[in-house]
Known about the structure:
Mean pLDDT: 88
Radius of gyration: 29 Å
Strand content: 25-35%
Distance between the termini: 44 Å
Number of helices: 18
Amino acid sequence: xxxxxxxxxxxxxxxxxxxxxxxxxxxxxxxxxxxxxxxxxxxxxxxxxxxxxxxxxxxxxxxxxxxxxxxxxxxxxxxxxxxxxxxxxxxxxxxxxxxxxxxxxxxxxxxxxxxxxxxxxxxxxxxxxxxxxxxxxxxxxxxxxxxxxxxxxxxxxxxxxxxxxxxxxxxxxxxxxxxxxxxxxxxxxxxxxxxxxxxxxxxxxxxxxxxxxxxxxxxxxxxxxxxxxxxxxxxxxxxxxxxxxxxxxxxxxxxxxxxxxxxxxxxxxxxxxxxxxxxxxxxxxxxxxxxxxxxxxxxxxxxxxxxxxxxxxxxxxxxxxxxxxxxxxxxxxxxxxxxxxxxxxxxxxxxxxxxxxxxxxxxxxxxxxxxxxxxxxxxxxxxxxxxxxxxxxxxxxxxxxxxxxxxxxxxxxxxxxxxxxxxxxxxxxxxxxxxxxxxxxxxxxxxxxxxxxxxxxxxxxxxxxxxxxxxxxxxxxxxxxxxxxxxxxxxxxxxxxxxxxxxxxxxxxxxxxxxxxxxxxxxxxxxxxxxxxxxxxxxxxxxxxxxxxxxxxxxxxxxxxxxxxxxxxxxxxxxxxxxxxxxxxxxxxxxxxxxxxxxxxxxxxxxxxxxxxxxxxxxxxxxxxxxxxxxxxxxxxxxxxxxxxxxxxxxxxxxxxxxxxxxxxxxxxxxxxxxxxxxxxxxxxxxxxxxxxxxxxxxxxxxxxxxxxxxxxxxxxxxxxxxxxxxxxxxxxxxxxxxxxxxxxxxxxxxxxxxxxxxxxxxxxxxxxxxxxxxxxxxxxxxxxxxxxxxxxxxxxxxxxxxxxxxxxxxxxxxxxxxxxxxxxxxxxxxxxxxxxxxxxxxxxxxxxxxxxxxxxxxxxxxxxxxxxxxxxxxxxxxxxxxxxxxxxxxxxxxxxxxxxxxxxxxxxxxxxxxxxxxxxxxxxxxxxxxxxxxxxxxxxxxxxxxxxxxxxxxxxxxxxxxxxxxx
Length: 968
């Protein structure tokens, strides 16, 4: 059986020294190797891929059951003409002789310390090894394949954008900022004569100009750079000794050898012609291919060594902490085959047989059974029942196993070649018995056939609808034909979680037009779930009861943020650079499109302060500061006053998405989208992030070029945009409390933001801020109203979402707790903690998933047990093979905002900066061992070791800042 596992390499830790002493540097490469991801079986498709990137170029790498190695190539600046961030292509590597002869052993490993993915095949002592690594310093992907015996290697470029296409229906959500026809041009495969593969995608349309015109900003055309026009991206694939394959386009081959090397050079530029871009690409490829490989490797490894040395968080939790609640609640529900419990969502394909076994069958056994026709008649001790559906009937008695478990037909069946076809309102129902309690390990096999994309639906259901505590099993194939099975065995015991049970989600597709063997295996002893398609693993839950799981996920996610953090454009919350194909969409799809949603995007960047990954933060700040001229002009046009603001959802050049603003008959501009119409507090949160960055780095150039221009325009907007009360106090009306109360007066998030950033702005260095600007900020601060408050039923005073809420709640946010995070006016060591705790207890939304931030607020309030529960709930939220391919929830996988909250909450449990003090382990569970190195204010480095329930060491560099540490 194949499980994702943690490598067992021992961590080399620095010697424990007294508090405040300076230890030797931790052996970062060896220590981080503890969190490598190692698989001992191939993946079914890209949903089971491994991620890796160099800051701009990112890969999804997986090995198919055939032995072929595939990887998607992404680049953070590959924007199409309709603002979609596209994959550049997919590469397939085929080894010959075949990679998986009988008895071969397989391993695919992500090696964090060296920034590479390593794939090995071993048979009879002979090994073939493939290394894939995106060069840390260049737009270059290296592929190295070596073997003990000669073998051939074929590399094929696979392009799916082969013709110009219009996105229609739900697929249009991946370009939802475009109101016009969503047309993307085809990729171009360039003829070559030098045994290379060259291709590109080139934007020719002028959607950028249309966007400006529709938003009333057409006069800025020519003044604001168009980020899309003539943007061209693609690559050059070549290798020494490789030759073009005359029988296959975009394919290179090399005959038997023990050492193969391929180089994939990638390039993005805006050029007047495609030929100009091609000249740049060829010059770049020639330069990079001439570099010494060992020198490139040494620089690459030095980069990753510095990255892992910069910060780390090695936590070990008690084994039971990360385990899911195991075992099913006994259920009295019938087992339904072919439809849900309420006889809806009928499975519309054909069904030939079902077999229910005790225990988890081995991968080898499942592969054997999948390769033959349904083998049902053989009874064994592990068999519960086997049903064959070879012709329509009113009931089906098991052909083996417990013959009392009769499957009775409800509705009508029709004949299908080798099975039966289920139509509308048709299903088979097996009455409950003790044998169907499913509170033991089992494997459920089925032989199904889907002939059209429209087929799908519920295949097995032993649930009871809304009563999830009695839901045993729900295995679905929703249209078009994806296995997205759910195993619901009981609610998680943690009341802070809304995950509702164990859910194994995969976007793997079921082949059409033939009989397919599907299997679901579950072991309640470990809460381990696996999906198989034709005997090959398609999905598995992450490892259970691993004391290293939380730490592994933290390190993996930090790597994933780093993979795209140094590109021209900021990180994407909806999939990052690692989107993958699903049954419904190709790998270019991401829900909510290419605009930046501040409420989501910010969460990817907050944890980067403490990790010291400042290069990525600067890219985020750069985009908004570059767009300030557009924001100023848009503010003048729409509202007729000075200052600047950015809408909650914004395009990279500072404009609204199409369709979100229009001009009324009276000539005034109007924001049509009520979800963001008066939602401005993201500007204050970005300013708060900038202030923290300044606090940490004391970067004078950043203060002058970014922080002061941004702050000047944003504060001016707030002061002149809003009305005044008779006493001169600002009145935020019309306004809104996030997306939840879309009509509100004096919302807490806006007031908390101003009360948080203005005092910090006033305290900026005198030499850097003009006296009149500082005096103006003081005046604005004096005009900010008090935070709204209310009285709980128990008589305790709490913060309120707004002074007035004028409509029902429409989303699941707690605006009143913005005064805890992101605006840290309240916390465990700040005044009025009792008010903050009363606010926390009354909050309406208590979930810990995706962008919801209860986790961070619990840590900042010192609520250790709650913070621990939230972090553990998040650690269980991955349902794909890779541990940090977080399920997409409301957004898209891998969910970046879920990841950002997870990281920031864990870091806030370990370290908090409050005013001039650095609080160590302020919300840390005593039974969790931890060794961390994180960054603090004024370029400090804090390293702490906590073991066996006690603080062993706490160090700060420089040591002159020792007085700032507050120890538990």
